[in-house]
Amino acid sequence: MYSVSPSDVERYHLRLLLLYTPGACSFDDLKTVDDQVCQTFIEAAKRRSLLRDHTEYERCMPEAVIFQMPQQLRTLFCVILLYCNPTKPVDLWNSFKAHMAEDFMQQVDAEIAEAMAFYAID
């Protein structure tokens, strides 16, 4: 299966549904939960409890670290905060702040770079 950037929220949730929905034969099958068709793959993934806790986002961030630049990681972090409501956003930040600050670390030390990355998030 192809990897999908977690910042592409709808496709990322489609990928989750494809991985964990046995027997689905169509997009409507993937969006159907308890005989109700959800409007989005995000909604379907949530209703199927595929996003139970903040560990799902801890799993997507390491994948993103491999493929994305620090600015893209900061954008992904914002997407996660806005659309996915992680239960422990501070822990998520602390786990990946060094990766999100790598571009600033070329100019300043790690502590200042992390602060710059934090302020760069709009």
Task: Explain what you see.
This protein is mainly α and 122 residues long. The protein has 2 domains: 1-51, no CATH class; 53-122, no CATH class. The chain is built from 8 helices and 2 strands, in the order ααββαααααα. Strand 1 and strand 2 form a beta hairpin. The mean pLDDT is 87.
Q: Order of helices and strands, N to C?
A: HHEEHHHHHH
Q: Enumerate the strands of the largest sheet in spatial order, edge to edge or round the barrel.
A: 1-2
* Strand segment tally: 2
Write down the overall geometry.
Answer: elongated
> What structural category characterises the helix and strand content?
mainly alpha
Low-confidence stretches: none
Computed Rg:
16 Å
Sheet with the most strands, sense and barrel status: 2 strands, antiparallel
How many domain regions? 2
Distance between the termini: 33 Å
Report the mean per-residue pLDDT as an integer: 87
Helical residue percent band: 55-70%
Beta-strand portion reads under 5%
Number of helices: 8
What are the salient characteristics of this protein?
122 residues; mainly alpha; 2 domains; two-stranded antiparallel sheet; 8 helices; 2 strands; elongated
Short structural summary:
With 122 residues, the protein is mainly alpha-helical. It contains eight helices and two strands, in the order ααββαααααα. It has a two-stranded antiparallel sheet with strand order 1-2.
Q: Would you spell out the secondary-structure blueprint of this structure?
A:
Elements: H1 9-20, H2 27-31, E1 32-33, E2 36-37, H3 41-47, H4 55-67, H5 70-84, H6 89-100, H7 102-105, H8 110-120
Antiparallel strand pairs: 1-2
Helix pairs in contact: 1-3, 4-5, 4-6, 5-6
